[in-house]
Structure formats: structure tokens, C-alpha cells
Description:
Layout: H1 2-18, H2 30-40, E1 44-47, E2 51-56, E3 59-66, E4 91-93, E5 97-105, H3 109-114, E6 125-134, E7 145-148, H4 156-166, E8 167-168, H5 173-176, H6 181-188, H7 198-205, E9 210-211, E10 221-226, E11 229-234, E12 237-243, H8 249-256
Parallel strand pairs: 3-7
Antiparallel strand pairs: 1-5, 1-8, 2-3, 2-4, 5-6, 6-7, 9-10, 10-11, 11-12
Amino acid sequence: MLVLFHMWRFGIALLLLYGSACTNHSQLTKPQRMQMQKRYEGKTFWLQTSLYAGFFYDDRRYRLGHPSSFDTLNALKTIDGYTILPPTHDDIIPAGTRVRIEHIRWPTPGNVFGAALYTPKQLAWVFCSVALDRGNTTLWRERPYILLVPKHVQSPHAFERWIVSLLAKTNPNPWLQTLPKHIVKGIVSKRPLVGMNERQLQAAMGQYDDILNKATKSTQRQVRRYGLLKVTVQSDKVVQVRPFVLLTATQKKKHKQ
Length: 257
């Protein structure tokens, strides 16, 4: 009876996690997936956006690299809608670091079943080797790194656009060397700074999570959310960086009044 009870508990855990693990890449046919693998696997790139890094959820064989802070990720949810976060990031991989794509794992039924329990099985994973430091070093870090393909990426074109947003074929380090030291420090430490232009902001923070206002032709002022930061960009320059405060339902109601 005890064995049956534990089997029942394990089955419930699987249901909670796999129930939300619908394949988000269902629009990619097998030939398209093979095409993406042929195009990218074994190829070397350069990070053009600094990444937070840490353990890959509960599978400590791997490391996770992501442009957003780990405490804002919602890649893993239970069937009840609860978000399971990865462990807090413990490193930052700076822009200009060499990356080699080793393998793309698609969320097929076999891969979903074989993955560690508390991992975002419903997403595609890009396994990478990451250099020890930015620049021309070819020494690689010990553990493989995983880049999570966002759930909205559901076509070959979208997959390529996502890759290009993170990885560059040309070395960005010569460009980084031309920048003021405080700007480089902001990029490699993932801190948006007043005075950064669009390219520098992209190198530091990656793609924004949301736009909080509508820019007009008269002001050309755009307020963006990067995780828990609110960054105001005007005429291709960062003009303000502030914390992003999440409002409660009561606060939202008062704000509307």
C-alpha cells in the first residue's frame, strides 16, 4: 500500500507539471526543426546581450542563462497557475562572451517525459558551451548552459529573430572597447544607465518586457519595463531609470479614480 501511495503522489506531481506542458512549438514541423538544428548546432557566436546565470531549476547538471532576472521568470507553472522560479542567479555572463550552440532540444513527448521534474519542459532548450570570459578565449566553462526559447516563438522566422536578439556572428568586443568605461561596466553588470543609447541598453538588458506608455511624435518618450526596473528612453537615449512598482488591485482602483 505504501508503494502505491507514493506512486499516486508521483503521478499527481507529474499531472500538475505536465498538465501545463503543451508544446509551444507545435507549428514547427519536423523538417523545420531539422533545418534550425542544421543551421545553428555546432556554430559559434558572441553574446550581444549580457545574461544572468545560475542553476537550471532543480537539474543541477546544467546552468541557465537568461537576459531577465530569475525572480521575474514565469517559464515554469503548475496546472493551478503557480509560478516555480529557478534558484537565484549567482553570476552574470557579459556581452562579448563566445558561445557555441551544441544542441537544440524540442519539447517532444519523449523529451518532456525524460526531463527533470521541476524544469520548463514545455519550452525548447538551446544547449550551449560558454567561454570562461568575454573576448577571444576559447576555454569553456565546466557545465553546459541552457537558453530557454520563449513561448511566443512558434515559427522558424521567429526562432531566428530570437537567436539574433541574443547572439551575434561578429565579435562585439571591438565596439565595446570604444565605449566609456562606466558604460561598459553597466553593460557587463546588467545595469541600465542614464546616457546609454539604444544599442548599449540592448547589450545591457536585452529585450524589454513591456512598454508602459505610448510614445508620441512630439515627445518621442518611451517608458519600458525591464523586470523590476522602469527605463525611460527619449530620442535614442536613456533619460531616467527607476524601480518598477507592482500595484495591488486596490492601488490600481485608486489610481484609476
